[in-house]
Amino acid sequence: MIDAALFDFSGTLFRLDYSDDVLLALLGEHAAGVSAEQRADLLRRVTTPHGLHSGLTEEEERDWHNRDLDPAAHERANIAVLRLAGLAEEIATSFYGGMKDAANWTPYPDTEATLQLLRERGVRVAVISNIAWDVRPCFERAGVADLVDEYVFSFEHGVQKPDERIFKIACERLGVGPERSLMIGDSEVADGAARDVGCDFALVPPLPTAERPDALITIIRAALG
Predict the structure, then answer these.
(1) Tens of pLDDT along 103-132?
(2) Do the Cβ atoms of 100 and 155 come closer than 8 Å?
(3) Domains by residue range for the chain, with CATH
(4) Phi-psi category of residue 109: left, alpha or beta, with phi > 0 → left and psi -120 to 50 → alpha
(5) How far apart are CA 167 and CA 79, in angstroms?
(6) Which residues touch 29 (CB under 8 Å, ≥6 apart)?
(7) DSSP string spanning 76-87?
(8) Whole-prediction pTM value?
(9) Separation between Cα atoms, residue 18 and residue 200, nearest integer Å
(10) Kind of pairing between the strands at 14-16 and 105-107
């Protein structure tokens, strides 16, 4: 039995699912020359949580490493990555803006049911995300904002996963010890570091939302006993 559930955001509770129509609109005049595989590559480039893109300048590399701590660095780094993919500056900027639009983030099919079950069982919930903007509007749009007790964002606290401090902050804000908490995320490196402070950890694959219907609720049902 657990007293707190800690969730990653992107690839765990929600996923950046640009439809073809949205992608084509964001690409504008470049759309005709960009294949479906290339469009998928654009998303991969801006949602890769770890690793470094080849071709970045030294300054752009610094921005990439610090992107989840500084909103300005996040914008510069991602636009640089999109330019490397062949997008013109204005198209890259537009594409980046769409990434921050709550309308383009889709909750996984079992996100609401999972959060509702935790609320019914009296389990406290926190969202811990390496991110450079406030994603509360995504939860509000999905109608689940009132099912989350705390949001802990890297850019607001100046610390990011896998640094153990961010997990401690979440547990302290929930008023629950790490030994009574379960972290769920899509990254063994970033989210799995919760084990270092005494949390249990469960990994979910960051699949398209339609391909992962019940991973979250299966984990939570097992944890609740």
Answers:
(1) 989 999 999 999 999 999 999 999 999 999
(2) no
(3) 4-15+105-224 (3.40.50.1000), 16-103 (no CATH)
(4) alpha
(5) 29
(6) 91
(7) HHHHHHHHHTT-
(8) 0.90
(9) 32
(10) antiparallel
